[in-house]
Amino acid sequence: MPAGAQQFTFNLADGYAPTEFINVNMQAWAEDIRKATNGAVQIRMHFSGSLFKNPDIKRAVQTGQVEFGTQLMQNLGPEKRLFEIDGIPFLAVGYADGMKLWEISRPYLTAHLQKQGLRLLYTTPWPSQGFFFKKEVNSLADIKGLRQRAYNQMTSRLAELMGTVPTTIQHTELPQAMTTGTVQAFNTSPTSGVVLKAWEYSTHYYDTSAWMPKQMVFMNEAVFGKLPQAFQQAILEASAIAEKRGWELSRQKAEEARQTFAAQKGFQVLKPSATFQHELDKIGETLRDEWLQSADADAKKVMEQYLKVKGH
Q1: CB of 61 closer than 8 Å to CB of 13
Q2: What is the DSSP code (8-state) at residue 80?
Q3: Are the C-beta atoms of residues 140 and 208 closer than 8 Å to each other?
Q4: Longest CA–CA separation in the chain, Å
Q5: Half-sphere exposure of 24 (CA within 13 A, CB side)
Q6: What is the mean pLDDT of residues 222-250?
Q7: Residue closest to 163 by CA, chosen among 249, 244, 68, 283
Q8: pLDDT at residue 153 above 90?
Q9: Domain 3-126+213-257 classified CATH 2.70.150.10?
Q10: Nearest-angstrom CA–CA distance, 116 and 198
Q11: Dihedral sign for Cα atoms in the order 257, 262, 268, 270
């Protein structure tokens, strides 16, 4: 049967809202695939955990319950430490460093997922993390003892090293927690800061580009293998385009968010002082060294290659 006569309708499970720029990019990716195959390959998107909850998506794709899925790579750290590397604070600062780290780590993660019956298609980075406070901060001494939002092991350790008290708060609860003083400091991406209207309960944003977590899109390898070669090629080409577009979109959205911050009366957008930045860099080195102590062989290789490229 010629490829054009075959029809494939697949499903994709995702944990985020369709309006997130990462998912807007993903919808454009699915449309590119549909057009390239003359409508023969269609991907139905299921957002906001509606098909599978976020922690269950990868397993669902592995077992063939759904053909495509997405995941924040950091979340997979417990299965392989290399997935966490883009979540180490102050390691890859900014988009150029983030791309270098991705280019080095990609072959290792691709091989790992391949062994699990998954094909890694592309990644898109969430914008880099910055810090929000209710006052001016020139050094760690200015925030000692403040309660700082933490949401995983790495951010809890980060808070400890910053001299703050790690406090677990859900992302959606941040506005109320900051208003009531349950927490007095937090980090998130500038785009999330806009969504959460951070200027309503904080006064200073420090643009640190601390780390850049990536969202990956993957599919069941057996499903991919059964597709006609022309359709496989269409998926791979659309994925390469989506990756490039997604990284650029992330950069653009981060800049738009900074401009939104700058337009808010009484809200300051700042770079850390030399002292504060030096202290944060030192914390980054400590976190990196601690992470390496329990890192797998692939993670150690990637870190070594990345630091060499960076000139460390």
Answers
A1: yes
A2: -
A3: no
A4: 71
A5: 10
A6: 98
A7: 283
A8: no
A9: no
A10: 40
A11: positive
pLDDT digits (tens, 9 = 90+) for 286-304: 999 999 999 999 999 999 9
Structure tokens at 265: 């009366």
Point out the least confidently predicted range of 70-74, 109-113, 226-230: 70-74
Task: Give the architecture-level CATH label for domain 130-210+266-310.
Answer: 3-Layer(aba) Sandwich (3.40)
Condensed to tens digits (0 to 9), the pLDDT of residues 251-260 reads 999 999 999 9
Please, is 2 exposed, middle or buried when counting C-beta atoms within 10 Å of its C-beta (0-12, 13-18, 19+)?
exposed
Structure tokens given for 215: 């969202």
Domain ranges in the chain are 3-126+213-257, 130-210+266-310
Task: Decide if 3-126+213-257 and 130-210+266-310 have a common fold.
Answer: yes
Report the amino acid identity of residue 156. Answer: S
Whole-Å CA distances, 86 to 40, 89, 94, 119, 224? 36, 8, 11, 20, 27
- Confidence category of residue 4, pLDDT binned at 50, 70, 90: very low
Task: Give burial (CB, 10 Å; 0-12/13-18/19+) of 34.
Answer: middle
DSSP letter for each residue of 43-60? EEEE-TTSSS-GGGHHHH
Tokens of 115: 């062994």
In the block, tokens 């054009």 appear at 4
% of the chain beyond a pLDDT of 70: 98
